[in-house]
Amino acid sequence: MKLPCRLFVLFFVTILSLKSFSQKIVESYQPITNDSLRIGMGNDFLPYIQSGFTLMLPEEKSLKGVLIFLEDSGFDQKNKNGKQLYKHASEKGFAVLSVSTEIPFDFYFSDQSSFSTTVQIQKAFSKYDLPNENIFFLGTGLVGHRALKYIESIDKESDSFRLNIKGIVISNLTMDWTRKWYQHKRDIRINHIDLWEARFINYMLETHLKGTPKTAPENYHIFSSYSYFDEKNRNIENYKEYAVRAYIDPAIKYRLKKYLRTLYENNSTDMVGFLAELQLIGNNDTELVVLQSDEDISQKKNTQSTWNSIDKEELMQWILKKS
């Protein structure tokens, strides 16, 4: 009789555990606009995607805060970065909100992107009574870039709705778009890898920033959250008051072998420089986490693999500590 009794107790405890951390997932997206965005010369276009949001709410728990990802709703698994935090955030009483504009691979070149994001965030906070406290923006790659550009835009918008941001978590993203442009020019020159991304990004930069770093350097400085080439580093002050944690995976051997890239063609360069500039203006609430994954150069490494490698439970402990 002892074994069935133990099995019953184990089953009962498991059910209680699942109930304690059950989640409610809601989606709110607009119909797709029947239009497309030019992304290159000739007939290179991408269709618009759905603007809106996905929200994870921990049930039967009072909310302590909200984690926000500015994720693309198309051309990828929807909200896949935010989903990796659902369980850990739910256990700690945090909601997870993923927001998308209608622009595919949105770089936030236009203020319209930030405005659209604010509309969706405000809608989610109002409809689901989310607490405007302990707000953290998180993101890897382009998602992290959007978070930084959105934070820079906040002062331009109305005071009627302003997020109480506590911190920023960024992972393996480009901050210095001057450096990135030169990286892609080198990729195109040596012609060693598939060049779709290099041509796409440089076309978008040159189109929206009205030139190259050689002909329009100021535009690149303004667009960069941090730039080694910008003596003013005018955007750094936007992050002075926030806790900032940055994850990098330099993967130097991997990038040398696969892409023939140097230390200069590495997002880690931007992120370390960004933290150094923050400390220079008095923000000592910063932290750099270096992920060491360079031994197996056969394993694919990119912005997504860096995010996948992060210890999510430990990250949530850091967020709780900063809340």
Task: Give a short synopsis of this structure.
With 323 residues, the protein is an alpha/beta fold. It has twelve helices and ten strands. The strands form two sheets. An eight-stranded mixed beta sheet has the order 1-4-6-5-7-8-9-10, with helices on both faces. A two-stranded antiparallel sheet has the order 2-3.
Overview of this protein structure:
By secondary structure, the chain is an alpha/beta fold. It has a domain at 22-172 and 302-322: Rossmann fold (3-Layer(aba) Sandwich), CATH 3.40.50. The chain is 41% helix and 17% strand. It has twelve helices and ten strands. The protein has helices at 2-20, 80-83, 86-92, 111-127, 142-153, 177-190, 196-208, 217-223, 252-259, 267-280, 303-309, 312-322; strands at 23-29, 36-38, 45-47, 52-58, 65-69, 94-100, 135-140, 165-171, 243-248, 286-290. The chain has an eight-stranded mixed β-sheet, with helices on both faces. Strand 7, helix 5 (142-153) and strand 8 (165-171) form a beta-alpha-beta unit. The radius of gyration is 21 Å and the shape is globular. The chain starts with a helix and ends with a helix.
